[in-house]
């Protein structure tokens, strides 16, 4: 039986990277969510059973793939070949859902988005999808008349339960690892039944994030560029000094030439 996730964990770096890619798009965008699923057993307090436990599923968002090629058609039917290729490209991360980005719109799945989600869930089930079902994320916000983005927000949804996982209508609490506590409570308050953030599982700070390698490579490249720029500036300074010495020598030669060159008398007219 497939039960919905209890919450979604996300790193702020992942969201920022996706926002940057979406901002560069000329129109609304969508894509796939990749990550992992955490399982834990919790005790359930009941008046009738003294010792009872239940399994909870948590989706961990590790990478947001902003699609630059179609993976579904205009009717909302997904392309199995494209999904299989994208899933293989992002292994060992697993597909945990998808997202849609649109400005100046409500946080509610449209008819077309519901069709896409339903088709994706069916494909996921047919290809051995794991626990927890699939997450549907909406990135929305508003912009000024001049086109400047004023706000950008993210909300996650899922199906209502094992009987209906194809309609993403239930809000999924979203917890970010590197945002302040006020924001944590804001996202948790999106689902009134959600427990306090301190009671929710956390992403392991010591574990390597899939984007860490890209960040380290970028830092190494920046440091190399800085060293190269410093060497270039030093070379330019040396050449400026040599040029100044050459100009001084030329001026000195001009002075000597003026001293040894006789001045012709001026013949009055």
How many beta-strand segments?
8
- Mean pLDDT score: 77
Summed up, the helix count is: 5
What is the rounded Rg?
31 Å
Q: What structural category arises from helix and sheet content?
A: alpha/beta
Largest beta sheet: strand ordering:
7-6-5-4-2-3-1-8
Structural commentary:
There is one protein chain. A hairpin with a 7-residue loop joins strand 2 (29-44) and strand 3. This protein has helices at residues 12-24, 80-89, 111-126, 181-188, 212-260, and strands spanning 7-10, 29-44, 52-66, 94-103, 135-143, 149-158, 170-172, 174-176. It is elongated. It is 36% helix and 26% strand. It is α/β, with parallel strands linked by helices and 269 residues long.
Task: Summarize the topology.
Blueprint: E1 7-10, H1 12-24, E2 29-44, E3 52-66, H2 80-89, E4 94-103, H3 111-126, E5 135-143, E6 149-158, E7 170-172, E8 174-176, H4 181-188, H5 212-260
Parallel strand pairs: 1-3, 1-8, 4-5
Antiparallel strand pairs: 2-3, 2-4, 5-6, 6-7
In short:
With 269 residues, the chain is α/β, with parallel strands linked by helices. It has helices at 12-24, 80-89, 111-126, 181-188, 212-260; strands spanning 7-10, 29-44, 52-66, 94-103, 135-143, 149-158, 170-172, 174-176.
What distinguishing features does this structure have?
269 residues; alpha/beta; 8-stranded mixed beta sheet; 5 helices; 8 strands; 36% helix; 26% strand
